[in-house]
Amino acid sequence: MTDGWVLAPREPTEAMVDAGYQAMFNHDNVVDIYRAMLAAAPPVDGWQPIETAPRDGTPVLAYWPGEAAMFGVVMWDGDDWRESEYVWRYPTHWMPLPQPPNNERTG
Predict the structure, then answer these.
(1) DSSP string across 24-81
(2) Residue 101 has what DSSP assignment?
(3) 102 falls within a domain
(4) With contact defined as beta carbons under 8 Å apart, do 22 and 14 qualify?
(5) Which of the residues 23, 27, 29, 81 could staple to 36 if both were Cys, CB 3.0 to 4.6 A apart?
(6) pLDDT of 10-42, one tens digit each?
(7) DSSP state of 96
(8) Structural domain contains residue 8
(9) What tens digit of pLDDT does each residue of 40-94 get?
(10) How far apart are the first and last CA of the chain?
(11) What range defines the domain where residue 6 resides?
């Protein structure tokens, strides 16, 4: 993930809404309210339920338990989770892809 970015729930949690509501009374700056809501967001640690995965074409690491557990980089195509030409019908969990390594030759 790019520096300066964080993962946050697609819909705010009750704690985030409460933090935003409280910040409205203490700040007149919408950025302060936004920061208060992000600070109240639950931590994103490891695997998340597939229902929370981005469905905008962003590639993610997915897990499918099946008979032989599988991992793969997939993205939502509007109908299915796809890994190039293969369709993953029932992934159960996902996590964001890590940042690529810093390659000194490419800067």
Answers:
(1) HHH-S-HHHHHHHHHHTSPP--S-EEGGGS--SS--EEEEE-SSS-EEEEEEE-SSSE
(2) P
(3) no
(4) no
(5) 23
(6) 778 888 888 888 888 877 788 888 888 888 877
(7) E
(8) yes
(9) 877 666 788 888 888 998 899 999 887 777 888 999 988 888 887 777 778 899 9
(10) 18
(11) 1-44
Angstrom CA distances, 32 to 5, 17, 22, 72, stand at 16, 13, 11, 38
In-domain check, residue 107? no
Say if residues 57 and 33 touch (Cβ distance below 8 Å): no
The pair of three-digit structure tokens given for residue 54, joined into one six-digit string: 């981005």
Contacts of 13 (CB under 8 A, 6+ apart): 40, 41, 42
pLDDT, residue 62, reads: 92
Domains held by the chain: number: 2
Query: What does the pLDDT read at residue 2?
Result: 57
Helix (H, G, I), strand (E, B) or coil at 2: coil
Q: Verify that 27 and 52 share a domain, yes or no.
A: no
Q: What is the sign of the dihedral through the CA atoms of 54, 48, 7 and 101? A: negative
